[in-house]
Amino acid sequence: MNDLAGKHIVLGLTGGIACYKAAELCRALIKEGATVQVVMTEAAAKFITPVTMQALSNRSVYDSQWDAREGNNMAHINLSREADAILIAPCSADFMAKLLHGRADDLLSLMCLARPIDKVPLLIAPAMNREMWAHPATQRNLAQLKADGTTVFDVGTGDQACGETGDGRMLEPEELLQDLVSFFLPKVLAGQHVLVSAGPTYEAIDPVRGITNLSSGKMGFAIARAAHEAGARVTLVAGPVSLPTPRGVERVNVRSAQNMLEASVKYAQDATVFIATAAVADWRPAQASDQKIKKDGSGATPQLDFVENPDILATVAKTPRAAAGALYCVGFAAESHDLLVHATAKRARKGVPLLVGNIGPATFGQDDNALLLVDAHGAQEVPRNSKLVLARHLVTEIARRLRATQP
Ligand code: C5P
Q1: Average pLDDT over the chain, rounded to an integer
Q2: What is the model's pLDDT at position 4?
């Protein structure tokens, strides 16, 4: 992926042990296509050397407001003018206090104060001991920085370098990268609550056996991530898959179709969009055995009767809120052939405004896919790409349709 292609990030480091994570973050930003200019405070240079950051960013590091390398001797102006964002990671409690007061007695704070506030966003990733984080002064500063337009990334929870445990760790580089990528994406689903179902279901035969299918859940998880990036509140009802939960997404784990129905109906009560990507088992054993069915050595095989599972999407699409247009329902169809014919028929059968077709065997478990969007106006092909790129495209298409239906 090249989610930060063309972006120039000024990465500011302030004094804290989390500086060691800034090295990895710098690499991650560059791998994602950004150019990175590192600016360090004097205290940051006690934790990690400018040499390391120069090698990783492939640019000279700036750490003084008296840097004679700049023709006009105004590094604070020059560096900030070309940035798409200034990201301070780690941002110490002391540096937060400085930012808050508009102090400018070192290059990094001077540059933050001198940046064109409407053009160059300031993002901070706080990192400090839990008591410092919880202190009323820090929390007051935090609130005021947000009110001043600073984007404040969350802090992590867990073991701290000081030996204590609690809130205040800097997020991991991969988490910060995701949050930064998300920051630059348009918030086309702001104010929406998106419910996504994903993965297979598992229908028990007995306590140790069951039937399931090959759905990996990757498409649904990518959609949940894309919806969150687009500013929505996201609830992800996930069948049994071991994928990591996308950042900022509320995950509800379920196992059977019946569990998935209950969770979906519950969260659909205040969702505004339902995207059903789950590969729900069509049938389940009529009676799951309480005990393991034993092989008796006679060669006899168990006789399994099946009953049909509820159709979750059709059930949700029939609820009064969906019928009234307050809940926009999107279905998926995994077919092996004649995609347009089957997807068009399925859209009508499920009673949903948008149906997304894909060729099942060509996408199950893969990282890429190709989609066919079918709505009342016709069909639109979305060519093969990574599931995340397709998910972002789908989210944009859903947002466009929502704007047309929700004044
Ligand atoms: O009927 P079919 O399984 O082909 O339909 C696929 C679509 O319907 C997907 O959006 C899937 O999540 C949804 N579905 C459902 N409950 C079922 C079967 C399918 O929600 N029992």
Answers
A1: 96
A2: 98
Mean pLDDT throughout 148-175?
95
Query: pLDDT per residue over 21-68, tens digit each?
Result: 999 999 999 999 999 999 999 999 999 999 999 999 999 999 999 988
Q: Where are the domains of the chain?
A: 8-184, 193-284+304-405
Probe target for ligand 1 pocket from 214, 311, 328, with the most ligand atoms within 8 Å of CB: 311
CA of 343 to the centre of ligand 1 (A): 12
Cβ burial of 314 (10 Å; 0-12, 13-18, 19+) is middle
CB burial string 164-192: b at 16+ within 10 A, e below: eeebbbbbebebbbbbbbbeebeebbeeb
Ligand 1 midpoint to CA 276 (Å) = 7
pTM of the model: 0.94
Could you give the CA distance from residue 364 to residue 366 in angstroms, rounded to a whole number? 6
Q: Is the CB of 83 under 6 A from ligand 1?
A: no
Q: Give distance in angstroms: CA of 273 to centre of ligand 1.
A: 16
SS3 for 337?
coil
Helices (H) and strands (E) in the chain, counts: 16, 19
Residue 53 is predicted with a pLDDT of 98
Tokens (6 digits) for 73: 């001797």
pLDDT digits (tens, 9 = 90+) for 290-341: 999 999 899 999 999 999 999 999 999 999 999 999 999 999 998 888 999 9
Catalytic site residue 19?
no
CATH placement of domain 8-184: 3.40.50.1950
Find out whether the beta carbon of 332 lies less than 6 Å from any atom of ligand 1: yes
Residue 300 three-state SS: coil
Answer CATH for 193-284+304-405 from 3.40.50.10300, 2.60.40.3390, 3.40.50.150, 3.40.50.300: 3.40.50.10300
8-184 and 193-284+304-405 in the same fold = yes
